[in-house]
User: Which sequence fits this backbone?
């Protein structure tokens, strides 16, 4: 129930924000998928909220993740994950799945994921700014 309330409050906040394109590599708090444009839904001094639609057969491209991120599968699907070109996992993330990533994933880890299912995946990342700035210093 707690997650549902959090998600509902987040959606209310997002509906009040203007749509913007996702900014670039220069912001350590932003996810930058080289192959997939994203949408910057909200940014303030505490967090960044981005949304990505990953089409069937599409791969994000090698990218980094800052620390302290919450992800929400608005519409889930089948993922395959690679590190250094090798498949490390695959499976289904159900619609509504929420997860937490505390650790940083660096570009040197050669991380990327792809939609290996038949339907688009709708994914939201919420990045807490204290975490994303502390892992760049």
Assistant:
């Amino acid at each position: 129930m707690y997650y549902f309330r959090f998600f509902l409050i987040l959606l209310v906040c997002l509906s009040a924000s203007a749509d913007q394109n996702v900014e670039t590599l220069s912001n350590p708090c932003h996810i930058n998928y080289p192959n997939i444009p994203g949408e910057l839904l909200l940014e303030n001094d505490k967090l960044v909220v981005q949304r990505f639609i990953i089409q069937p057969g599409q791969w994000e491209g090698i990218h980094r993740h800052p620390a302290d991120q919450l992800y929400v599968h608005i519409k889930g699907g089948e993922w395959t994950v690679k590190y250094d070109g090798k498949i490390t996992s695959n499976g289904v993330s159900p619609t509504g799945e929420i997860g937490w990533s505390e650790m940083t994933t660096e570009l040197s880890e050669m991380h990327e994921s792809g939609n290996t299912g038949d339907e688009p995946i709708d994914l939201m990342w919420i990045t807490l700014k204290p975490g994303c700035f502390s892992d760049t210093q």
Summary: Confidence is low (pLDDT under 50) at residues 12-24. The radius of gyration is 14 Å. The longest strand covers residues 47-54. Helices lie at 2-15, 129-134.
